Model the fold of this input.
Amino acid sequence: MGDGGSAGDPLGHAQNRATLLGSLLRIDVDSPEDGRPYGIPPDNPFAGNTQGWREEIFAYGLRNPWRFSFDPPTGRLWAADVGQNAYEEIDLIVAGGNYGWNHMEGNHCYLEADCDSTGLIPPVWEYGHSEGRSVTGGYVVRGSSALDGAYVYADFVSGRIWALRLDALGRPANELLLESGLNIAAFGRDAGGETYLCAFDGRIYRLR
Done:
């Protein structure tokens, strides 16, 4: 869920666990309970809390995640978070994690010049608005000799497509794959593991 606006999250939704906004939510659609059409997974990080926090929240401190995906071989949950004025970011999501918005935009203080980042989870990668202005999250590619294990994502405005890899120590290496010239809105994956993307030209493209 996005923070609900307007610019800069002036109501502080992303750091407020009493609201669903600015968070990644996890629900059980097969188990309605307490008058809701869904249930709360018992291992959600805030399930059963007494502080009034929303139990649907899995992670928070996000501005406008677009989009998230799992990498089944590793169990990692990747999410791209669209920035505000200067930085776009890629996050690895963990249960109960606080990803910093609106104290931080990427690795940088947002509200003040010197902010306290204690307890905040930094992005695994960020890029500035000289390279793009609206990140579109993708998938970790599997089964490709060239891109196996790389997280492929794009920027909606610039049309750039990148491959992001993490080494055994979690250190990132980012490679520009293509200047597509497309407004890439989303990625997809078929049952055979092929990766696709869709753009505003009415076409679906396969990544080869």
In short: The mean pLDDT is 96.
